[in-house]
Amino acid sequence: MVVKFGVIGLGNRGSKFALHSIIPHPDLELVAISDQNESKFLPFEEQDVVSYTNYDDLLKNREVDAVFIATPDDTHAEVVLKAVRAEKHILCEKPLEVSLSKISEMEAALAHYKGVFLVGYVLRYAPLYHKVKQILDAGTIGQIWLANGVDHIHYGGYAFFHDWHREKKRSGSLLLQKATHSLDILNWLIDSKPVQVAGLGGLEVFGEKGAKKKFGAPLEKNLHCRSCTLKWSCEESLLNIKKYKNIEWQKNWPDNCVFDSDVDVDDHQALLILYQNNTKLTYSLCQFSAFYRREFQFFGTKGELYFDDERNEIIINDRLKPEKTVIHVAEQAHHGGGDDEMLLDFLTCLKEKKTPLSNLASSAVASRLVLAAEDAISQNKIIEVEG
């Protein structure tokens, strides 16, 4: 059986997932796409798809069996609820939503839903993370009491802080947008629910404070890299990033100034989390890193395990013996091979009526943890995690 997909939202994630994962898949067919911006249809001109500027029309299309929702985070509940009413199988990009009330609304709507609902925490499906899960579950390093995670994000300055993610009213925070990937993985690997969180964060490199440090004063509002007089002298200019680092996040990516006074999301955060099983986790997110890497470390009663997704290498050190094990996992495309495995899980759940590995319950835990972390940072105190 071929499952016919519609994609709602053709930003960076939506368009790439449609082009590189759905279209090439032998058991899937892309039949419809939707975006408010008609220019986003251009990469699909050679495909036999129906294009809509209103996603309601896509949901009315009876040919569409399933939808991939890749709209801005604060619209997920709205689109998911309409997809439920249209009786579509749903693959929704993470995070679940940006507020506790909307998460609860989605849980209520999906409580007895008979269709597939999978949330795109794609790292759960990547071979590297699956291998680590097997090692930890086998008790190789014993009982885990301490863990550490670090997200080095080098594209804050040439992606997130140029587009809608830079404002809290749209993205909630970059913890919600980016950290939930790693925090969801850590929840899964630690195999317990978070119960308390404390945190610190700040906006120091970008936004108005960054402008004052770099230029001595706030910049005028509504500046854009491609037309700015500083486009060849400002290191954060999209033009300079392409010229000196040979990086172009996406053609025609929004070029709003990263130093705009409207920028209000933190560019770095540090969290301390307590789990139900008494494991403690420290986690850091940096949006101005020199390179891109996720790295994790687990301290157990029998040893330590370290791995990162840049080198795809797992290192295990025995605590009581002079033994070290290094495991290499073959590098794969599209989220470390996770996109393909995620689609396989989606199809399996559709055929066998199973619950996906990345599901409503696990995704709600990740989102509630991040929302509690935001409260911990803003209130400067330990916060209980709901649920």
Automatic annotation (TrEMBL):
<dbReference type="Pfam" id="PF01408">
    <property type="entry name" value="GFO_IDH_MocA"/>
</dbReference>
<dbReference type="InterPro" id="IPR055170">
    <property type="entry name" value="GFO_IDH_MocA-like_dom"/>
</dbReference>
<keyword id="KW-0560">Oxidoreductase</keyword>
<dbReference type="InterPro" id="IPR000683">
    <property type="entry name" value="Gfo/Idh/MocA-like_OxRdtase_N"/>
</dbReference>
<dbReference type="InterPro" id="IPR051450">
    <property type="entry name" value="Gfo/Idh/MocA_Oxidoreductases"/>
</dbReference>
<feature type="domain" description="Gfo/Idh/MocA-like oxidoreductase N-terminal">
    <location>
        <begin position="4"/>
        <end position="121"/>
    </location>
</feature>
<protein>
    <submittedName>
        <fullName>Inositol 2-dehydrogenase</fullName>
        <ecNumber>1.1.1.18</ecNumber>
    </submittedName>
</protein>
<dbReference type="Pfam" id="PF22725">
    <property type="entry name" value="GFO_IDH_MocA_C3"/>
</dbReference>
<dbReference type="GO" id="GO:0000166">
    <property type="term" value="F:nucleotide binding"/>
</dbReference>
<feature type="domain" description="GFO/IDH/MocA-like oxidoreductase">
    <location>
        <begin position="129"/>
        <end position="305"/>
    </location>
</feature>
<dbReference type="GO" id="GO:0050112">
    <property type="term" value="F:inositol 2-dehydrogenase (NAD+) activity"/>
</dbReference>
<dbReference type="InterPro" id="IPR036291">
    <property type="entry name" value="NAD(P)-bd_dom_sf"/>
</dbReference>
